[in-house]
Amino acid sequence: MIIANWKANGDFESNKVWCNRFIERMSSIGSKSIGIAPSHLHFNQIKSDLKDHDIEIGFQDIDIEGGARTGSISPSMAIDSNISFCLIGHSERREIFNEDNNYISKKYQALTKHNIKPILCIGESYKEFQAGKTEKKLQSQIEKCILGKTIQENLIIAYEPIWAIGTGNTPKPKDVNTIHEFIKDVVQSASEKNLRPKVLYGGSVNKLNAPDFFVEKNIDGALIGGASLDANVFSDIIEIFSRHKEK
Q1: 3-class DSSP state for residue 88?
Q2: Measured over all CA atoms, what is the biggest interatomic distance in the chain, rounded to whole angstroms?
């Protein structure tokens, strides 16, 4: 699956242009594994503009509950919007908004309770990477956020090394493949139903390096940030994914 994370970008006019161009490109590609996470403000616009196409529209984040929580979007409100998925645990939420694993775990439980597909983002810092602590950090994040709780069959994990997000720096695809296999094994070993989740890679993916990532067995797609803001570039990445993963 290829998911666009637009973060705090977009406006109604440019979104319309983006959707028109994207629809034009998709008519020749025909991939069925696409997701878009626009801002909450633009969610209904994107959902409406792409309603005739097999594309999942989701949220970038969610709160743990509703009520007296000014500015929040609750799980029940998300259900009312008919979302397809929701990102949780993105490094920017962890760093900028000080969300820890315990809070992200509560978000995961809220999504599970409301049958919303969770996409759990995990990743290590450059210091942890350099110290060889990547697997230890990822296992800790997985265990504290989802293990010991109901593991949804549609769970997706996005591996995003913090040092690669928006920097242009990327780990070697073969190393990412090994990390993805490790993530799948951690979840599978704790799953009553022996589940192996899909694992997406995120962190400066573009149309030039996408082929190298998508040839790897355990890389099931990508979570695309900046590159997804250009409809042509995002379409190019989807086309590459389709050639390698949807034969």
Answers
A1: strand
A2: 49
Crossing angle between the packed helical segments 101-113 and 134-145, to the nearest 10 degrees: 50
Tally of structural domains, the chain: 1
Half-sphere exposure of 4 (CA within 13 A, CB side): 30
> Residue 17 belongs to what domain range?
2-228+237-245
Q: Starting from the edge strand earliest in sequence, which strands make up the sheet with 85-88, in order?
A: 56-57, 34-37, 2-5, 222-224, 198-201, 156-159, 117-122, 85-88
Encoded tokens for 78: 């998300």
Q: How does pLDDT run along the chain (247 residues), one tens digit per residue?
A: 999 999 999 999 999 999 999 999 988 776 678 999 999 999 999 999 999 898 999 999 999 999 999 999 999 999 999 999 999 999 999 999 999 999 999 999 999 999 999 999 999 999 999 999 999 999 999 999 997 767 888 999 999 999 888 777 889 999 999 999 999 999 998 887 888 999 999 988 999 999 999 999 999 999 999 999 999 999 999 999 998 876 5
Neighbours of 164 (CB within 10 A): 21
Sign, CA torsion 180/182/185/187: negative
Q: What is the DSSP letter of 13?
A: H
Query: What CATH number corresponds to the domain at position 164?
Result: 3.20.20.70
Return the active site residues. Answer: 90, 160
* C-beta of residue 55 within 8 angstroms of C-beta of residue 82: no
